[in-house]
Amino acid sequence: MGAASFVGRIGGLAVALGVGAAVVAGAGSAYADDDGGSETKDAPTSSATSPGESTASMSGARTPGKPQVARGERTAGTTPSVPSGDDEDASADVSNEPDDAPGRGSANKRGEPADEATEADEVDAPVDAAADAEEPAAPEGLQAPAADEPVAAPVPTEVAPSVPQKPPAPTEPSAPPAQTVTAQFADEPAGGAEPGEDSGDPALPALAALFSSVLSAGREATNESPTAVGAQVATSLAESGSAQYPIPTGVTVEEWTPPLEWLQRIPVLGPLLVTPIVGFIHVLPLVGDIIHPVVGFPIDHRAPAGTPQARNYRVTSFDGTRIFVNFMPAKGLQAGETAPTILNGPGLGLPGSTALELPVDSFLPDDVIGVGTLRQNGYNVVTWDPRGEWRSEGVMHLNSPDLEGRDMSHIISFLATLPEVALDAENDPRIGMTGASYGGGIQLATAAIDHRVDALVPTIAWNNLVDVLFPRDAVNSSWGTILPAVLALTFAREHPRIFPVAIQGVLFGLAQQSDIDLVNSLSFGDQIKDITAPTLLIQGTVDTLFTLDQAHRNALDLIDAGTTTKVIWYCGGHGACLSDVNDGEFVIERTLSWLDRYVKGNENADTGAQFEWVDQNGLWHGDDSYPAASGTPIVVTREEDSRVMPIIPALFGSGPNPLIITRGLIAALLGLPSAAAAYNAVNLQVPDATELTHVVGAPQVTMTYSGEGTAEHVYAQIVDDETGLVLGNHATPIPVTLDGTTRTATFSLEPVAHTLRPGQSVTVQIVTSTAKFINYYSWGAITVEELTVELPTRIPAGAGASREPLAVA
Question: Residues 434, 367: contact at Cβ < 8 Å?
């Protein structure tokens, strides 16, 4: 790592952790109001849904159970690429499809006009005449500086199947056939690196430097060849005449052999001692995933010859970036047999899971299905290190369909060549996708551009990152601290504007319009309607990062497009489940049912009602439509004397709730932005319920106020009077203008799922500061003259809709 890069990385980490310390230090006291002087654009608000939204057509749903292609019909294999014997340079054949991906400024699938393409910078790496062509530049805002230590491509194995692409949906024109372009790379790395510098291999040749190999080798080198970060998105769709991305038909890969895997093959000692140690390492959360590229998977020494084994590859994406991929065959798969495959994406800052036997996710065990459970149920499992993280090259672009989405498209084409992978057609493997958070977002980014995906289960994913980080122009400062700190601690190679945006927003409450536009350009929210794969959206009721509203928006877009869609609200996500104990079994059960139905084609698999949610008592409810059928809302108005509240940083604010420390280390960290009952608040108590009432959806508040000061937001939350917990741990920003004038404002709150039994009640609070939106530049006073709340109610389908949580095995 270059000195300048090192200093910049540590400096960014120091700032991130410094802001994080402010969050922790302020936990025992109140926090201040949100941003003053924010320059972000208005974010759309979430309002209570109308009954008409629940009657979307499902006519466009995919038909499950597509026939598989017999193994003998495959036309492609894996053959080595042999360089000339007289040439000492390591050369590689890289087969790339035409770079027809659009930037957000280019024409999209819905026929919007494309921006005029511009000429890209010349590629540093030498190429042969066949590949010596100029490429259009990426959309404005994607440019990044070259890495300090670019790498040379090793000798790969070329997988070049000659197969047709899957016919597109009837509403989309066919994509042009992919072409193969061969480029030859010399030993000298792109950018003029000197011979002998880091080659970018996942482990250094010198095993004595094992620690350095595990933590840094191949991770600081960006690998700009054959195209720079600023030119990763090439020819626009307008120029190609296509309305969708080209499906890759030639992908360059190389199988990766861990440098210490040979220890397991030592007679007697390997099977009896080394392999058990390697197996134990792989069940240690995160530790096994980090060390894996050095030690490899545990070898099954008793398996008959030809039995499929877990192994690693590096798959070359459309721009030359190599993605580190782990392939783990289904449990019990025999030689010559095939199985459907699940792409299981990691969360932000995490490497691809290599926990062969773990039944649940090692980081979020109560939220996400594990590799072991998927393999046990007859699925091959593929994980990977996302672009810009861990052993993969390139620069992170926050799951942009144009970059990370195309990485996955190349991995899918590569999987179609493996003998263990079941196919629906040539170059079309039978696949589903799972994963949480960043691993949920990549599913939406992938399926929007590649319709070979058969089913999705995105857990705690998002719809729009601008609304997540700057909701209603408030600054989500807690998560704006935690997320960059994760990237800094894991030495990710994020887009160069990510840290400045986060730090500037957290410290000063400001965001440049160009940065907001950049985040929007990387988003997949405008392409959700392009997804055709049946999608199970799983979102956490206590998730303070990607709230229920994010899944709600995704669901409405999918249903509107005619895509088979199901929604589950469970107690979990980026937050601490304080109201009840989530054992994760319901989520895992529904995940398997969804995959069995739409990947395996088992029409008898019970996927449940279209909408299922859990209340604060751990009871599950369901409705056959989404959103659920609406009941009569509860409307209450506070007409007492007006109340004046001072707005002073760190004065009796909301949260974090100290109970988060009772839920474990990870939940405590994720629960830092949680809300809690506040002393400095305007209260409106809802009368006791007279009958069983389900409050499900987005409440709405109307507030008449006046005041003076620099604060631009106050916050609304709802407290359970029985437990003292804030519903969903959510405090929602309410924009205000404090210039002495009396105003009335109406805003929706974050969606909640709560059951009121006879005699139970809740209290609405207007507070001036919260842990999630902490800042120290909001001052003044506000007078709340009148306050009204409208609580949405839902009617569960049938008298027997509620049921106890699944028993713990």
Answer: no
Taking a C-beta distance cutoff of 8 angstroms, is the pair 384, 404 a contact? no
- The per-residue pLDDT of the chain, averaged, comes to 73
The H-assigned helical ranges of 523-640 are 548-560, 585-598
**Residue 760 corresponds to which tokens in the numbers above?**
């139970």
Residue 630 DSSP symbol: B
Spatial contact of 768 and 782, defined as CB atoms under 8 Å apart:
yes
Identify the DSSP state of 762. Answer: E
Amino acid (1-letter code) at residue 778: S
Alpha-carbon distances, residue 529 vs 165, 461, 591, 643, 782 (angstroms): 21, 16, 22, 46, 42
pLDDT digits (tens, 9 = 90+) for 319-348: 999 999 999 999 999 998 999 999 999 988
CB atoms within 10 A of CB 75: 10
Check whether 97 has a pLDDT greater than 80.
Answer: no
726: its two tokens: 């804030």
- At a CB cut-off of 8 Å and minimum separation 6, what does 262 contact? none
Give the span between the Cα atoms of 487 and 13, in whole angstroms.
9
> Could you tell me the pTM of the whole model?
0.72
CB 750 within 8 A of CB 732: yes
Q: What is the DSSP string of 615-667?
A: -TTS-EEEESSSSPPB-PPEEEEE-SS-EEEEE-TTSS-B---GGGGGG-HHH
Stated length of the chain: 809
Asked whether residue 272 carries a pLDDT value surpassing 80, the answer given is yes
CA count, 13 A, side-chain hemisphere, 354: 29
Distance CA 554, CA 558 (A): 6
- The 10 Å Cβ neighbour count of residue 685 is 14
The domain segmentation of the chain, as residue ranges, is 3-53+631-794, 71-453
CA–CA distances in Å: residue 243 to residues 168, 246, 695, 710: 10, 9, 43, 48
Q: Tokens 């599950």 — which residue?
A: 620
How many Å apart are CA 239 and CA 241, to the nearest integer? 6
Span between the terminal Cα atoms of the chain, in Å: 48
From the centroid of its chain, how far is CA 660? Answer: 24
Q: Please, are residues 703 and 642 in contact by the beta-carbon 8 Å criterion?
A: no
Q: Cis check for the bond before 170: say yes or no (omega within 30 of 0).
A: no
CA 388, 393, 394, 398 torsion-angle sign: negative
3-state secondary structure of 175: coil
Pairing of strands 752-756, 700-709: unpaired
Q: Using one digit for the tens of pLDDT, what is the confidence trace for 386-437?
A: 999 999 999 888 888 889 999 999 999 999 999 999 999 999 999 999 999 9
- Containing H/E element for 294? helix 287-295
Span 606-627, pLDDT tens digits: 999 999 999 998 899 999 989 8
Contact, 348 vs 486, CB < 8 A? yes
The CATH number corresponding to 3-53+631-794 among 2.120.10, 2.60.120, 2.40.160, 3.30.420 equals: 2.60.120
- Could you write out the DSSP letters of every residue in 471-535? GGG---HHHHHHHHHHHHHTT--B-TTHHHHHHHHHHHS---HHHHHHHHHT--GGGGGG--S-E
